Amino acid sequence: MPEQSLKEKTAKGLLWGAINNGVQQILVLAFGIILGRLLSPSEYGMVGMLTIFTLIGNSLQESGFRAALVNLKEIRHEDYNAVFWCSTFIGIAAYLILFFCAPLIARFYGEPELLPLSRYCFLAIPIASLGTVQGAYLFRNLKVRQQAISGILAHIISGCLGVTLAFYGFSYWGIATQSLTYLIVVTLCSWHFSSWRPTLHIDFSPLKPFFSFSSKILITNIANQINNNILSVVLGKFFTSQSVGNYNQANKWNATGHQFITGMLNSVAQPILVKVRDDQERELRVFRKILRFVAFIAFPAMFGLSTVTRELILITVGEKWTSSISLMQLLCIGGAFIPISTLFSNLIISQGKSNIYMWNIISQVVLQLITVLCIIMMKGSIQTMVIVYVCINIIWLFVWRTYAHRFIGLKFRMLMSDLLPFMLPAIIACCIGGIAASLIGGHIIVTFIIKILVAAICYMGIMKLSNAEIMHECINYLLKKKVS
């Protein structure tokens, strides 16, 4: 593929990814604000306790097949068909297992209400399994616009339904129904936009060539879900459902920020890196350009979100969520580095090195588990857990860098030269915004607006003075000018 064609595909993919994730995150925020005012932290916590089980079940049914299908240079109907039926059967089996394990889950948390709620929430697993192959088809063929339409439509329908149920007193059942409805709509849309259809000729033999790769992705995805949700489980077991609710509220805002960037990135990174992996020099050049773009967006967005956390929580969901403010500030700082780690993981997967990806994530999860258990034994606070959790995730970025150096020659100085020109200005801009707001004072909404405006102006001003190439390329593309 010609360089210009690849650049154009990447730019279009990132643009549609930005539109998709931007609109989706706005919808998530809008419906989340309404639900946050209608429901209590304890009600949020009930569904939060079950999240890890649903995510692990979805990882099982997906089984790493999505990444495996994308990595195939030549793909056949038989490959898609084998994955479809395997994913469907695993999804049904996973639901049945969790259905009968529901009493144990309710007993583990000491919440009898979790028994019927868990069996309802776990329906997400077989529903999601029906869209795994169609989603992989759209992803492999860079159908980002179609994925955007599916996600946006799903958020609108599910959000309206969830808010309606919460308004009429259905409590946490509204959140559970919202999640299920989202998956149903996304699955239906994926079928609509995908031209591939399964056949009744069931043959699992095509799975054998990439089972070694996909099985490692599966184990890694499960480890990732444990790592991302370990604090919800610990808080639900050793603290209260209210603590889980406060943490989940904080993490929801954090996730809304970094998922906008990671979702945009995931829409193009792996397919693009797969296309250039036979040319190491070109792959390094492509990787570093994407890395600079991610840093340009992630640092000001997430550091800025951390800066306005207090105002944002009080304005949107109210004082009953005050306990989540300090947690959200910490999580947002760590959230700035999540898209960068995601890019590194996409690089490892694009190289076909699922074993390295797997052991790297497992090592990180083991370290997280050990530290969390030590903090519990020492009767540490929730804030201490979050601080350590964030620090480990940031430090692990340099572990990813060592593998990037092995595969594409990314040196430490290259990483720093790609990150620091955006990280330091973002910190400076947010500090100036905070100082300006404190000097001017006024109503909380005024403070919120001043922080955002001053920080944004300072950051873009620094980018202009430093003549940041990535900023000019983004502006030129959006203005339909030719990027040199």
From TrEMBL:
<keyword id="KW-1003">Cell membrane</keyword>
<protein>
    <submittedName>
        <fullName>Lipopolysaccharide biosynthesis protein</fullName>
    </submittedName>
</protein>
<comment type="similarity">
    <text>Belongs to the polysaccharide synthase family.</text>
</comment>
<feature type="transmembrane region" description="Helical">
    <location>
        <begin position="415"/>
        <end position="437"/>
    </location>
</feature>
<dbReference type="GO" id="GO:0005886">
    <property type="term" value="C:plasma membrane"/>
</dbReference>
<feature type="transmembrane region" description="Helical">
    <location>
        <begin position="328"/>
        <end position="349"/>
    </location>
</feature>
<keyword id="KW-0812">Transmembrane</keyword>
<feature type="transmembrane region" description="Helical">
    <location>
        <begin position="175"/>
        <end position="193"/>
    </location>
</feature>
<dbReference type="InterPro" id="IPR050833">
    <property type="entry name" value="Poly_Biosynth_Transport"/>
</dbReference>
<feature type="transmembrane region" description="Helical">
    <location>
        <begin position="117"/>
        <end position="139"/>
    </location>
</feature>
<feature type="transmembrane region" description="Helical">
    <location>
        <begin position="356"/>
        <end position="378"/>
    </location>
</feature>
<feature type="transmembrane region" description="Helical">
    <location>
        <begin position="384"/>
        <end position="403"/>
    </location>
</feature>
<feature type="transmembrane region" description="Helical">
    <location>
        <begin position="14"/>
        <end position="38"/>
    </location>
</feature>
<feature type="transmembrane region" description="Helical">
    <location>
        <begin position="82"/>
        <end position="105"/>
    </location>
</feature>
<feature type="transmembrane region" description="Helical">
    <location>
        <begin position="44"/>
        <end position="61"/>
    </location>
</feature>
<keyword id="KW-1133">Transmembrane helix</keyword>
<feature type="transmembrane region" description="Helical">
    <location>
        <begin position="151"/>
        <end position="169"/>
    </location>
</feature>
<feature type="transmembrane region" description="Helical">
    <location>
        <begin position="290"/>
        <end position="308"/>
    </location>
</feature>
<keyword id="KW-0472">Membrane</keyword>
<dbReference type="Pfam" id="PF13440">
    <property type="entry name" value="Polysacc_synt_3"/>
</dbReference>
<feature type="transmembrane region" description="Helical">
    <location>
        <begin position="443"/>
        <end position="462"/>
    </location>
</feature>
